[in-house]
Amino acid sequence: MEAIALEGVGFAFPGEQPLLHDIHLRVSEGEVVAIVGPTGCGKSTLLHICAGVIPHFISGDLTGRVQVLGMDTRESSLARIAANFGTVTQDPENQLFNLIVADEVAWGMENRGWEREETRRGLDRALDFFRIPHLRDRITYDLSGGEKQRVVLAANHAPEPQLFILDDPTSQLDPIGAEQVLAGIRDLAESGRTIIIVESKLEEIWALVDRVVLLGRGTIQLDVPRQHLDRHLDRFTEARVPLPQLVELGARLRRRGVAVPALPPDPERAAGLLTGVRRAPVPAAVSDRSRSTAEAPRVTVEDLSFTYPPPRRTHALRGVELTFPARAVVAVVGQNGSGKTTLARCLSGHLKPSRGLVRVEGRDVHRMSVRARAANVGYVFQNPDHQIFKDPVLEDVIFGPVNLGASRPEALEAAERVMRALDLWEVRDLHPFRLSKGGRQRLAIAAIAVMRPPVLIIDEPTTGQDLQESDAIMTLLVELAREAGQTVIVITHAMHLVAAHCDLMAALCEGEVIAFGPPEEVFRQEELLRRTFVKPPAVTALGNRLGLEPRPLTVEDAVDRFAGTPLRAAAK
Amino acid sequence: MRPLYQFSGQDSFLHRLDPRTKLIFVVSYLLISFLVPQPWLLFFLLIIAIWGLAGISPAEYYPFLLLMLPIMVAITLVHIFLVEGAPYFWSASLGKLHVAASLPGLYTGLGLGFRLGTMGLAFTLFAMTTEPFQWGMSMYRWGLPYKVAFMFAFAIRLYPLIQEEFIVIQRALKARGSNALSSFNPLKFFPGVVTTAVPLGLGAIRRSQDIAMAMELRGLNLPEETGQPRVLFREVRLRPVDVAIMTCCVLVLAGLVITRLLTPWLR
């Protein structure tokens, strides 16, 4: 029997052009189907249609026929449809309604009218299934992101639905949290549940996915078994959707005439398949990156320690010593709780260290006034929506410079330059909340970059962005560093972006710096990085296993190592 | 630091009491503070009770005490100078203006200040030791509609999240060079509050839509749809100790009222 059947489905929000059209999708019972596509292509909308949220909760023009577990979603109420499946979305905070974990997991069963004893058994079963019985009596807001999302999974699993609809459940989690949740999803798949999932980390769910559906230009572009994905590299590249790095490497090598089999996403297994493959010589070149790390120091961190006040009393930073040069893009990486955000907040003066100093161009940042700090150290917070203060977009961008004492014409001139670079000038008269998430993220960066602080700190600049948007943001940050001479400090979990764009990286673990240097060097220390749950990009990990010199940092690098450098690249 | 008025999540005698018992205790305690002439004693007694019976030391809620202190001092000062009556312990004249600090004013001011402090502290005790859903569900047991009780409890669950968001927004405002929220100038402070309200309000609207959808998907309306009544997983019922404490509260309160009416001891 089919769990989900969509026939000729289309959808348009009121007064807008159709977002989806001609969708034909069938998901059989027990199948695991991944939906991928660029940001804004309608992945979440498609899941909302499958869940009956459209048309019951979100209105619009829905066409075609939608059947979920034999029910026509138009003809049943949302409560009745939803009683048969579990849903998990991106932000666990929006899916936890109770204070205690046990109450949260039991809530769905209470609503279904289960007897108390039955609910107790369901609760135990769900907590055991996701290996979280130890969280039973914990308060939900005290849990880590990964724990919260596993509680949400358990709460959805407890009433024993056969179908799960998962909308990018790991996108807001750190590596360890994502791994915990993915382990839960793997268990669900192994137990025979039907799963339809939007997941940006395709390599992480590679082994459990049966089919991959590529969504683009409002409809299904491709619907293929997972093992045939590498045959469709062009379609993925065109849709700006990354394939797992090593799967892409295999496809590109074959295209360049190198005889390699289809590569799995796992570096260990891929290395085994590539051991005998001939490697091409690498031309020596001085990269832009090594030049930037030789610049004069702009930020110096001396013996920095920070302890949170009671009752928390966590030693978030312990004797951190770092130097960040001018004109460099520096990544700060590490699992949640490793001290990344505390370090960034000490650097920006938002937190006063318990011990030690932070100097920006020789001046102690904590002795600066609020204005002087804002002028010297720009801080872009993770959630762009927390930083929108004015309407329209242009007014929001000039808010900072005007606060710092710039005249309106000066502020407008500076804003135009930055906004054009960030592709925001055309939308300057819109309300900021009418921009996409990517647009709002760029707006947050523009609003700080326009103040031209010598140091720019950005917390997770690419969360929720697709491949092209992430690259555009990182390219802009590199430009700010190179052309405006800023020191850009990026807190991120996206190691492929660190490898591709950053000059230096600092890995933090339990408040200490365990590695600092160019990514090419730091990523060699896999054992050390494992302590803070940082994994090098798959191509670099492959390079570590095969002893490739220098280590490839991008798929392009890896292709060059095996197939040789194309003439245009060598000529650069 | 734990946000103010947030459930502490411990297990203690006070935590285990039924919310209704604690509510009756809090109301009785407040009324008692108006009946006895030594409200400061009740204030300090409550701090000791929270520490001893709930295991929450003042270090965990000192921001509340710090917040109360200037209010209590202000109330006392106002009464010192406004309540007339000998003996006066300080006076000064500035032209025609004569100010004098009276001892009865000091006592009245201290009394009111500590009563206010006791009121705040009693509510803190209730909030820190009562799990909001237990509170909501006991109200449901006493007849409040389920959705009202649940939403009430959920609002409390959401409070620390909003408080956290507010702190981030404050920092973001500083990062844009605005010090409005730290300003003592109301012409700067209030526009700063309005500016902060934009991201906070819009964020709350977005969040509430997502939450409403998630609740619907988890079956909030299922009992109405199917006619199958909801069965609460946790039993909410009064234990003998709850009944005993409630009875004690009522008896002590009644005893004090009678004593005050019939004897001069508490006047």
Strand order of the largest sheet of chain B: 1-2
Mean pLDDT of chain B: 87
Shape of chain A: globular
CATH first level of the largest domain in chain A = Alpha Beta
Mean pLDDT of chain A: 89
Second CATH tier, the architecture of the largest domain in chain A: 3-Layer(aba) Sandwich
Question: Care to describe what's here?
Answer:
With 572 residues, chain A is of the alpha/beta class. Helix content of chain A is 37%, strand content 22%. Chain A folds into two domains: 247 residues, 3-Layer(aba) Sandwich (Rossmann fold), CATH 3.40.50.300; 249 residues, Rossmann fold. Chain A has 23 helices and 20 strands. In chain A, β9 and β10 form a beta hairpin. Chain A is globular. The C terminus of chain A is likely disordered. Chain B has 267 residues and is mainly alpha-helical. Chain B has two domains: 160 residues, no CATH class; 105 residues, no CATH class. In chain B, β1 and β2 form a beta hairpin. In chain B, α4 packs antiparallel against α5. The longest helix of chain B has 32 residues.
Feature tags:
heterodimer, A: 572 residues, alpha/beta, Rossmann fold, 2 domains, six-stranded mixed beta sheet, 20 strands, globular, disordered C terminus, B: 267 residues, mainly alpha, 69% helix, 5% strand, flat
Offer a concise description of the structure:
The complex is a heterodimer of chains A (572) and B (267). Chain A is α/β, with parallel strands linked by helices and 572 residues long. Chain A is built from 23 helices and 20 strands.
